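Reviewers of the previous submission asked for a worked example of the structure-prediction workflow described in the proposal, so we include one complete record here. The input consisted solely of the amino acid sequence. No template or homolog information was supplied to the procedure at any stage.
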Amino acid sequence: MIRHDAIDMDDTEVTKAFRDWTIADASDDKLLEILRHLCSESVPNEEIRHRELLRGITINHIQMSRMFQRLDEMLKRHETALIKSLEADAKWIKWFAIVTGILTLSLVMLTVILGRIAILDIMHSGF
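From that input alone, the workflow returned the following structure tokens.
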């Protein structure tokens, strides 16, 4: 809901913000204030009505660009945290694989030794 009493801006201020391109550095609250002004004021002159529409689209573009920038920064932080977590997990998995390999090799050697002992016992028992 637009509160007309909260809008204390005039067309010259909006025009100056676009002419000087200070609109690009305006705070999010200031952009909303300008949008409220653009949406609440009538534009009886057909020659400038399109200008007001383009200003609204420009503000929307600025807001969307900022949102994408914030999302990109957030995704980079999450990506960095995920990479660190995966690196730590990979370290433990590597050590687990090494220990499992050593144990498997030990069991194979033990099986061979026990099998050889069993064969030698069978051969010595005269079977």
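The longest helix spans residues 46-124. We consider this example representative of the routine output the project will generate in years two and three.
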